[in-house]
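Bench notes, afternoon.
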Amino acid sequence: MSSSSSAHWLSLVGSVWLQTINGPNADFPVYSSQLKETKGISQVQLNFLAFASDAGKLFGWFAGVAALHLPLWAVAATGAAFGLVGYGVQFLFLDKAGLAYWHLFLLTSLAGNGICWTNTACYLLCIRNFPSDSRVTVSLATSYLGLSAKFYATVADAMPRAAKARYSTTKVYLLLNAVVPMLVTLVTAPALRVLELGDDRRRTEAPFHAMFAITVSTGACAILGSIGAMSTRAGLLVLLAMPLLIPMVLRAKESMATIRETKPENRVHDLDSDEAFETAASVLDDLEEEEHHEQAEESGREEVGGLRLTRRPDFWLYFLSYMFSATLGLVFLNNLGQIAESRGLADASTLVSLSSSFGFFGRLLPSILDYYTAKSGYSVSRTASMAALMAPMSGAFFLLLQPNDMVLYASTAVVGTCTGAITSVAVTATSELFGTKHFGVNHNVVVANIPLGSLCFGYLAAFMYQRGARGGSRCLGAACYRGTFLLWGATCAVGTALCTALYARSHGEKLHRTSVPR
């Protein structure tokens, strides 16, 4: 039985909503300083809590294996359940002396692992339900992950005054991190299913154009709200709901077409056109099969998975360049709370919302480029794109050596944009480099670099911050992170070089394969 295009788009809307709420760890910088005071922990211990969320990704490959045997809605629900337990227990017992530091670490790790389960479900939905446009839809869905911090900050601001008076900022965010993902997963679960491709080959561009327009408007609304240009709370929530209009309109058109086809006067009239369309569809099938065959021969990329992945030099170049760029950017974003505090900024939420909004646009940019370059017959190399995005990041870290608030905001926007874009591009770069057959496991192996990088770079930043505090709990002044920014900038420059080498290797192999006579 063929499925309607409205059902495919409904699954994409479900993925978009799940991605929007699937970054509860992104709001950690907003309440990290208060959490440090509440539990009486040091900056190094606070950094290990930020690492704990990433540590859950070390076991993210379990989600890829589970996706081979479970329906995707169950995979997403498992991730939401982990978050409900991880953040929910912290919310209930945060003020209790019995909730020790190691409890916080384990609970945060559990919630962090839940993020991998939801991400895996969303990625596979986009790849399987939109095989010809998987790069575009994956980038579209993952772009909304960049809005998570902004979304949670907006919802927190909209909570009743009684709740804000009763609970601290830390407990408000822990409550939202626990409850919101589960509620959204339950609402979207019916749409989270893999659908068969329909027989109708008449492809319309209108849904993609509408989705791009809604997405760009959502990002613009988020940025305007982040810089305080206008109050955008209601507008942002309305724009997040608007993608649902696309499958609704498509469903209405399908219903109208079904009614029209069932009329007796249309059956005879449409007979010849139906035969012509079936002939055209048959030709398209042959052309697509030939094109896919040629692409497979041209790429020559064998499917790589399991332990064989770690034996490839390309894997280690990819793994390290990702860790020295996007992961480094995530560590910077995790430390925004302390960076803002050391610079004397009263509220870190503005800086966090700014990075989230620009990260959203960074994640969106690859999908727009993929869509329009594909229509022109071109395809942008993912590794080349990643290398081009790493260079500005390195420059932004060096700019942060200047003790200027405007430079801090500008550099945060650059790092947020590039980190978001690299994270989005990396999803399809994994399949470009190692094939799609084992994607669910392969990409979770690749993102294992995030906890490793978070531990190394985060600990370095915390150690240098603690040394600058001279025995106290706080460090004030631009010098607190000067050495950290210098090392991060140099590390990102190394990542740029590694990714350039990866592009040269993969591009050279492709040229060699295409030059071999068949």
